[in-house]
């Protein structure tokens, strides 16, 4: 088992104030907003899933800006993390047009294995994938993506960047990426042939970001936007 363990993340969110955690942010990073805009320009984002959403403001921001039409699913391995996210939405003003919200306690490698949550127009992952330090876990993740992302859908993923992103986070080892490495790793296990058709993830755009932690440290991230494609 890799570092996405239930107990570890339950303890993190139980023992530390959320505003002291290194990955904490009170907004969707500007580069991520820009990349979401590219995806949204091609077609409405009716269904979005936030992998490892935890205490992130991502879902709340999507609701506030009316980015998603129908449903937002927030997935995290920690119930404590999801409780914090829910609390952040308590004062959110919902209208009749606001999307439905699902809160799912699950390891991202095992999410939606039987397709019970359907497929999504956008899959979002900020700072989960880089904790998958074992090849078999990354393979499980890619297979989950294939099950979860609709044909023609979008993946927005943010990880620690090569060459100078952090080597550890929350006391755990991480993998660092550039755009080419992410493209290669994500497509391993993703492509599945159906008749003459084969799906793959095409890299549309990548952007670098420097995240400032609550303690003032700087962390180098890379964000990549992928589009599900089919080739004959």
From TrEMBL:
GO terms of biological process kind: methylation
Top-level lineage group: Eukaryota
Listed InterPro entries: Methyltransf_25, SAM-dependent_MTases_sf
Keywords: Methyltransferase, Transferase
Domain Methyltransferase, chain residue ranges per copy: 48-153
Record-linked Pfam families: Methyltransf_25 (PF13649)
Molecular function terms, GO-annotated: methyltransferase activity
Keyword Methyltransferase applies: yes
Keyword set includes Mitochondrion: no
PANTHER family: TRANS-ACONITATE 2-METHYLTRANSFERASE-RELATED (PTHR43861)
Protein name (record): S-adenosyl-L-methionine-dependent methyltransferase
Organism encoding this protein: Basidiobolus meristosporus CBS 931.73
Lineage: Eukaryota, Fungi, Fungi incertae sedis, Zoopagomycota, Entomophthoromycotina
């Amino acid at each position: 088992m890799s570092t996405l363990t239930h107990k570890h993340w339950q303890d993190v969110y139980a023992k530390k104030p959320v505003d002291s955690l290194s990955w904490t942010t009170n907004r969707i990073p500007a580069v991520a907003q820009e990349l979401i805009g590219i995806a949204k320009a091609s077609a409405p984002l009716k269904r979005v899933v936030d992998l490892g959403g935890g205490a992130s403001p991502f879902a709340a921001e999507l609701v506030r800006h009316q980015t998603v039409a129908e449903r937002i699913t927030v997935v995290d391995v920690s119930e404590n993390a999801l409780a914090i996210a829910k609390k952040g939405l308590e004062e959110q003003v919902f209208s009749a047009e606001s999307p439905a919200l699902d809160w799912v306690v699950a390891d991202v490698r095992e999410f939606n294995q039987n397709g019970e949550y359907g497929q999504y127009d956008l899959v979002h992952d900020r700072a989960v994938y880089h904790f998958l330090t074992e090849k078999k876990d990354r393979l499980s993740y890619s297979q989950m993506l294939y099950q979860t992302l609709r044909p023609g859908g979008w993946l927005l993923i943010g990880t620690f960047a090569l060459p100078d992103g952090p080597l550890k986070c929350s006391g755990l080892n991480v993998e660092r990426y550039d755009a080419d490495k992410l493209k290669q790793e994500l497509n391993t296990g993703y492509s599945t042939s159906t008749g003459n058709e084969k799906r793959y993830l095409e890299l549309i755009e990548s952007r670098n970001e420097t995240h400032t932690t609550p303690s003032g440290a700087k962390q180098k991230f890379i964000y990549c936007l992928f589009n599900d494609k089919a080739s004959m």
